[in-house]
Amino acid sequence: MAEDGTRLDDVLAQPKRFALLGYLASDRPLRLHRRDALLLLFWPESDEAHARGALSQALSFLRRALGKDVIVTRGAEEVGIVTGSVTCDVDRFEAFADAEDHHHALALYRGDLLAGFHVSGCNEFDDWLSAERQRLRDRAARAARALANRAAAAGADSTAVVAARNALLLAPLDEMAAKRVLLALQGNGRPALALHEYDEFRKRLRRELGVEPSAELQRMADSLRSGAN
Predict the structure, then answer these.
(1) What is the DSSP string of 46-64?
(2) Beta-bridge mates of residue 2
(3) Rounded CA gap, 71 and 63, in Å?
(4) What are phi and psi of 216, to 5 degrees?
(5) C-beta of residue 150 within 8 angstroms of C-beta of residue 105
(6) Residue 35 to residue 92: CA distance in whole angstroms
(7) Tens of pLDDT along 101-143?
(8) What is the CATH number of domain 89-228?
């Protein structure tokens, strides 16, 4: 949404222009981008003249849709987004994460960035988007794990279980997340469920990585089995 509350439906209907907007607006801190770098991202198969024309048209379209003060240029070769002119949940999520407000950060994280979004023929943009998705997913997993630790320390066992399982869902091969789940379920008096989670985690490790859980995690599972019997 634009700063004045204008919805971006027209932009959303144009995948490449929406991708360009998302790329420009996602930089933290915001910076200016060289046009030739943008051409490689979004028009890699076009000759320079046609690619530059397409970029100019896309920027003109964004100015019309968002307002003339949203897109900023420096000289003929650099372009970017004016700070504060476009807002998105990614900004708010990262602000909450920076402040270690894990509860509100996770409330904003609803899945992968632009899930299912794809721009045909823009492989470098797809690589960037994939990396951003993974970075934000990892950050959400760390927030969930931190929330589980905090809840466990406060004796809020049920909250710790929910947060720990959320962390493992976000990072299904992360042993620290698996350990937190086992500890949370053990603290909640559910060793049988903890063992089930361990077995599922072990299967994923074997299937995806061809490895076994660490000796420490295996000892935790053995201890849980002793307690469950």
Answers:
(1) S-HHHHHHHHHHHHHHHHH
(2) 86
(3) 6
(4) -65, -45
(5) no
(6) 28
(7) 999 999 999 999 988 888 889 999 999 999 999 999 999 999 9
(8) 1.25.40.10
